Amino acid sequence: MTEEIPAGPVLFCFDGSGGSLSALRAAGRLVERPVDAVVLTVWETIETQLALAGAFGGFPFDGADLDAREEASARSVAEDGARRASEHGYQATPMVRQSFQGVAKAVLDTADELSARLIVCGQRGRGAMRTALLGSVSHTLASHTRRPVLIAPETQAGSAGSAR
Predict the structure, then answer these.
(1) How much is the pLDDT for 164?
(2) What is residue 161's DSSP assignment?
(3) Is residue 76 scored above 80 in pLDDT?
(4) In which band, very low, low, confident or very high, does the pLDDT at 38 lie, cut at 50, 70 and 90?
(5) For 101, which of 41, 78, 105, 142 could close a Cys bridge (C-beta 3.0–4.6 Å)?
(6) Topology of domain 10-159, CATH
(7) At what angle do helices 103-114 and 137-144 cross, to 10 degrees?
(8) Where are the beta strands (DSSP E) in 24-153?
(9) What is the spatial distance between Cα 88 and Cα 22, in angstroms, rounded to a whole number?
(10) DSSP character for 50?
(11) pLDDT at 109
(12) Cα(138)–Cα(26) distance, rounded to whole angstroms?
């Protein structure tokens, strides 16, 4: 019995980090092109970030300006990622999503909505303690997806900030 490969685009999780650049490069060596791609950047409001980090609410705080900057930054990162993916032969479209329940959930929901054929993400070397406290998007994706996932480790070239 063979499993049918979804016909949707390759979904790149892209935050501009060395890990996401390494993942873009790794997929470029493994995925036949041309193929449609969506470059997804997920952002969270300051309030959501604090809540997910376990911060207590109740203090007066108007983060609307900070949230607008977060969203604008995410849009810029997604556009940069789509440009880089296009340079690698993908027919790439940027996408920005706001998350209320964590980055991994937003990625998984988007992959399902798009019928993504593959989810591509980088892996950050946070270390055991930080991963235990903060969680790992790549680990959550690998554990909870119903789709193929390519998780690429951050490389020295990826740390330099170039996807070429």
Answers:
(1) 40
(2) T
(3) yes
(4) very high
(5) 105
(6) Rossmann fold (3.40.50)
(7) 40
(8) 36-43, 91-98, 118-123, 149-153
(9) 13
(10) H
(11) 96
(12) 15
